[in-house]
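Give me the fold.
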Amino acid sequence: MPEARLAIDIGGTFTDVVLETGGVHVTTKVLTTPKAPEQGVMAGFGKVLTLSGLAPADIRLVIHGTTLATNALIERRGAVTALVVTEGHRDALEMAHENRFEQYDIGVDRPIPLVPRHLRLPVVERLDRHGDVLVPLDEESVRALMPVLDEKQVESVAVGLLHAYANPRHERRIRELLREARPSLLVTLASEVCPEVREYERLSTACANAYVQPLMSRYLRSLAEALREAGVVCPFLLMTSGGGLTTLETATAFPIRLVESGPAGGAILASHVARECGLDRVISFDMGGTTAKLCIVDDGRPLSSRHFEVARSYRFRRGSGLPVRVPVIEMVEIGAGGGSIASVDTMSRIMVGPLSAGSEPGPASYGRGGEHPTVTDADVALGKLDPERFAGGSIKIHPELAKGAVETHVGVPLGVDGHLAAYGISEMVDENMANAARTHAIEWGKGVDGRAMVAFGGSAPIHAARLAEKLNLDRVVVPNHAGVGSAVGFLLAPISYEVVRSRYMRLSAYEPHLVEEVLSEMRMEAHAVVEQGAPGAPTVSTAQAFMRYVGQGHEIGVPISAGLLGDQDAAPSEAAGLRNAFDTSYSELYGRTIPGLDVEVLSWTLVVSTTPPEVRTLSAPPSQGAPLPTGTAQLVEGGSHPRAEAGVFSRSDLAPGMSLEGPALIAEDQTTTVVPTGFAAHVATGGHLVLTRIGGAPLAADGLALGPGAVQ
């Protein structure tokens, strides 16, 4: 029997489950159960087992990703957390960088720290920047914290001492003392979760890890136990925000590394599709029930970073969220999903999100008690969804409830009919996403024009064509199983782990032995994690140095060859090679270099991963003509095409090579692709749908619009 693998993606509204066996994907989408997420997982697991005819013992690997950690941070429903700091530094978490992310707005507010001041607890100790002890740790000052921890019912403690990244001895001793006195207490060390320079980011990351650790540990162990009781006895791996897979033990120790694990799977899928289709400039568009995520993918690789902000609250501006310093696939995430609630503000403007109806009660059209209109309700009112095919028929859609909610809460306040109100909601959410995409691209020195879009998630194919128009894009690729795209992406991810160390040096005083010592230590740590998940598997290593000109405040990641570092005789050439690599990366980002300045390295990163599968470029399918619709729908498009009769097609009936023109709806169990007037759809090899603007870029032989890197 072929090896069976199970992928699980828990979102704020839906839980997606994909079972892969023999290259065939069996998928389902069920409502998330927020109070006990594992219940929704097991319900979806039971469905795919029934559909596939397999038994639990046939599963050879389980891969899981979730936004639960992100949602806990956004909604501030984590554990009661304390922070142990060096005496005199209890306010570093609140002082941050002592700047304003929007200097001209006198009403701007900073994100409130996860740990309040009365739970930021100082101890007597001090290290210098080299890790040498200036003041020994006073262990009695640590023991004196116990009454406070008991009184405030603290569940989790973060320990973040000054310069402990260079010498973690004091932090480790504090953990020993806390566990001796309170064995049930969870302890996070900043020197382990974020061993880097910059006190504020290190403390913020440690606090975030401690804040979500009790919730995530309980959940992950409950899910692992539920799977074992159901008869699943295979390895259980977790998707990380950096796009790799890690073990349950590592995930429960560092749950902050899962903060963007669900969206990371989607970015991996988009990268895979881009390589399959020969597209070298892509924007990934993932829209689910609660949020929308957009990511830049160049040359088949998504942007990556070591810095992420959770819950940016001010027009997507940097600095308006909680900083987390972990390996992450760089993307922008906003509260714009199918469940995002629409309202009218005091200035008679339609507002959409960030509040979401979630899965309980859900949109008004679900008939589960929701009263406020959502994006999904607007889509139903506009005829963009087939009520009979929604979520594979597992959720009954009530169009009359959707129209009533939209008209009552948006139409009446604005004095417009229900269809125009629904169109306004749809336009507003699409414009919010377009603005987020432009902002994200600009922050990274990238352009949006001329890219292809890869759209997936339950809501993305509904809105992709209109978003493409707003961004001036000519082609959209909707992959196979797009409705559960992130879960499919999990199955494409390698088992990997990234390690970082801060070791400062200038290139003019390069020390190869120190570099080799640091990288060797990092290799051992990363290999130990990867070996747990894939014993004996071949691995590859990639390294980066985070560098800047002397005197600058921020560094950039520069790819380096880990195998060439550490040879004393080659030190001058290594330093020159690093300088050349830095100049190249700096020029790509800023368009110039600065002559005459020395360059310094602040941190080193090393990623060890299993060998990724080879991706083959798809060939062009033979033309199959036009498919036959299974029905029609009244589609409200607005603009110059206010209403149209759209053909409804079943995606399972569309063979590679078939083409059709909009307006049309292409329905499948987990989503619907809207092909509006002015767009044509073509089925490429592998079953990917390619939407192209009529009059835009010409189609290549495989159905993809020609562009840089496209197959011809």
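Residues 61 and 235 are 5 Å apart (CA to CA).
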